[in-house]
Structure formats: structure tokens, C-alpha cells
Amino acid sequence: MSAATLDTSTLPPGPSGPRPLTVARFLLQPETFIPECRERYGPLFTIRLSAERTVVVCGDPAVAKEVFTGDPALLHAGAGNVVLKPLLGPRSVLLLDGPEHLRQRRLMLPSFHGERMRGYGERMRAIAEQHVARWPVGEPFAVHRSMQAITLEVILRVVFGVEEPARIAQLSAPLRALLDSTSQPRRLLALQFTSSQGARPRTPWGRVRRLLAPCDRMVYEEIAARRAEAADGSPPRDDILSLLLEARDEDGAPMTDRELRDELMTLLLAGHETTATALAWTLERVTRHPDVLARLREEAAAGDGAGDAYLDAVIKETLRLRPVVPAVVRRLQAPLTFGGWDLPAGVNIAPNIWLIHRDPQLYPEPEAFRPERFLDRTPGTYEWIPFGGGIRRCLGASFALYEMRVVLQTILARAALERTDAAPERVTRRFVTFTPADGGVVRVGSTS
Question: Does position 2 have pLDDT exceeding 60, yes or no?
């Protein structure tokens, strides 16, 4: 349904000021703007981001459950994620709906099987050790860039099977440039207010496409090289690209090069950036809470795995309080009712993770950083949702949580993190992720 025919008369209330101001606050002041709207308009409110994109934001966990368990034929996640299409491509599992989505998900799911995933642990640990060894001692530094380097190398080694340091550096540079291009506030606004369709070279989206081109070339080079290895009868590999090349759907058809490109770009851009940001937030949080840091160090020093439960609780509490992706989106394919509001086809409904994770009925003292709350009780399926929910829950959720545990265990064992009295870092947006505004500043003390 086009924006011109979308009936908005039955939508919940929301900001009614100039659209550019609403969009600017939504993009640049997310941690204050969204809670202010919740306070003023209630648990469901409407934000009009553009003539083509009207979003009903949902901060009610009961309504979020209805969205996650609703008919996927009527609630399209792919259509809701259309903002990602210029980067990930139309065949990304995040952009597909219906039978195409199910086919692609089934092809990818075996690559993230638990036993296979745990087989990557030693590589993750070795990568983290190499990067942590280069951290400065005795001076504050922003850890987010180092976390990006660790998680990107994990992706390149584990997903692509690239082992040569020179090739890893060659592949990393264009990806970092692409991600950095979407992190500056002025560029974020420019991308929001311009169309990606038919973008000319000097336009905001034209610049993104120019940065995307070398990333595309490298992905297709790796696909071609791996196909050539298979044709030559080379020994099988255990990386995810090799598994995806071998995958077949119910009709016996493999993934095309275009499908592989879009899924690999999804893993590269969505997978490594989100995990890096979650790691940076975790380190930012624990160094500002000396009691949490002390308990982590004590249990890590025990060296018998006793600290895993508390470390897992720290990770969960970080993802509760600082979810990397603040919301998930579904586009209605037919009129539906949520929270007492009759929503027309064409509107987007977005369960807001940031708001749901701050519901005081679910989490007493919701702004407090208290990992113990995850030792005391297990939240309901739709109460802790940093990876979304339902049949569209993030495919790489278990991989990301496992990687976070391994990397944090390595950091605690190899670096003497010090407490800091710095104020909590505010949130800033890097395209669709919420990141620490100062990069997650930490300090490492001397171990001598």
C-alpha cells in the first residue's frame, strides 16, 4: 500500500512537530527521545519517519509477544528491514519474507549448530589474545575499535576461512571504511532524507555505494576461490562459507553467488559490528561498577569455569540495559489490531527492545546495572529480546553470545582492567546500532 493511500486516522498518537525535527531527534537523541514519547503518549505511539515509512513503536511486552507470535504472512520482517537493503542486498535473510525466507534460513541454520560453533572457540581465544596484548597500559583508550578488529577477524577466519594476516588486513580496510561512513550524525541524517534508488556518485547514498564496491569485489573473490578449490578436489574446510557452498535446499538447489554474497555481507556487517558493540558496552559497564568487575576477576582467577554463570549474567544485563539493536520491525500486510489500536496495512509495528528492557514491572530499578537479576530469575521469552523473537530471531544469536563469552574470558585473564569514575557513556547511533558515544573508554593497569 502506498503512503498516499495509507489511512493513519486509527494510529496511536505521536510527535506531531516538523518531520525533520522528529527524524533528527529519533536518529541523534535515541536514548532520550524514545522514552519521552513513551512517557507522553503511552506504550504505543506513532513516528512518521518519511512519506513511505510510518512506524508504530511498541513498548508493551504483551503486545511485542503478539507481534512475534503473529502470522508471518501478515507481518513481514523483510519489508520492515528495507532500510538495510542498500548494504546487505535483496537476497539477505534479513530482507526476505515468506517461503524465500524459510528456504534461506534453513540453508544457513546448520552453519550455526552448537557443536560446530564451539569448535571455533580456540580460534576466537587466540585472536582475542593477540589484540589484547597490544592494548596500552596505564592510559584510557576507547575499546570499541579493538572489539571491531577482534570480531571482524573472527568473521574473516571462521566464516570466510581466511588465515593469511596480509589478506585479513586487505579485506578489513574497505569494511571499516564502509561502516565508518554510516556513523557520523550528519551523514546519518543525509542518508535518511535522501533515496538510495538511482543514487548518483556524489549523493550520500552514492558515496555509500562507492565504498560498498570494493567490499563486494572481495566477497565475490572469496566465493570464486572457494568454488575453484571445491572443483579441484581440495580437502573440505570447516568454515561457514564452505558449509554454505555445500548447502542444498529441498529441491537440491545450491545457493547462487548473489545469495552467498548477500548472506556473507549480512554476517560481515551485521554479525561483527553488533558483537563488537556489545563487547564494548560490556567493558564500559563493568569498569564503571567496581563490585561487578571485582566479582568477575575473582571468578575468572578461580580458573575452573565457576565464573561462567556470573559472566553470562553480566552479558545478559549489558544487553538488557544497552541493547545494540534497539527495535525490530514488521510491516503489516493486512489490517491488524495491536494493543487496542486498529492498524492499517502498510504501517510498520516495531517492538522496542530499549523500552521493554526498561519496564519496571519486569525489571525493578530498571536503570540500575545489576547482573544478579539474571541469577535470581530467568526472564520470560518475550521479556529479554536483544536478538528479536519468533521465527525471525537472529540466526547468529548463540554464536554471538558464545563469542562474547570467549572474548571476555580472554580479556579478564590477560588484561588487568581498572575501575573508572567516568560517567556512563551516552548512546550514539551507527546506522542501526546503538554504540558508546566515546567508544567505550577503559583503562588497563600493569600486571607487574
Answer: no
